[in-house]
Amino acid sequence: MNQYVLSGMICKTPKFSQSPAGIPHCIFVLEHKSMQIEADLNRNSYVRLQVVASGRSFQDQTQHLYVGQAIQVRGFLNRHESRSGLSQLVLHAQHIERIN
């Protein structure tokens, strides 16, 4: 099982919903900026990635998320397709940690 870790700032207000099966979801966008080394050169890394946190175990954690908050998310990547047929890469959270 592959897990990915991404840290950054929440840049869009978290949205809360519930599936027809009663599973709570929190969806937000995480903005990551860093300097990475590639081919012995500095490279700016920048990405905005949608994060989905599903299940009752995330309800308490996600209630207090806000724009500008620094967090680290661990989870798996999945492709979501919009109604218009556009593909989007999404990080499904399995652990969320606040960063001070």
Automatic annotation (TrEMBL):
The keyword DNA-binding applies. It holds the Pfam family SSB_1. PROSITE patterns: SSB. Transmembrane segments: none annotated. SUPFAM superfamilies: Nucleic acid-binding proteins (SSF50249). InterPro entries: NA-bd_OB-fold, Primosome_PriB/ssb, Prisomal_replication_PriB. Keywords: DNA replication, DNA-binding, Primosome. Homodimer. Interacts with PriA and DnaT. Component of the replication restart primosome. Primosome assembly occurs via a 'hand-off' mechanism. PriA binds to replication forks, subsequently PriB then DnaT bind; DnaT then displaces ssDNA to generate the helicase loading substrate. NCBIfam families: PriB_gamma. Belongs to the PriB family. HAMAP family: PriB (MF_00720). Involved in the restart of stalled replication forks, which reloads the replicative helicase on sites other than the origin of replication; the PriA-PriB pathway is the major replication restart pathway. During primosome assembly it facilitates complex formation between PriA and DnaT on DNA; stabilizes PriA on DNA. Stimulates the DNA unwinding activity of PriA helicase. This is Replication restart protein PriB. It comes from Pseudoalteromonas aurantia.
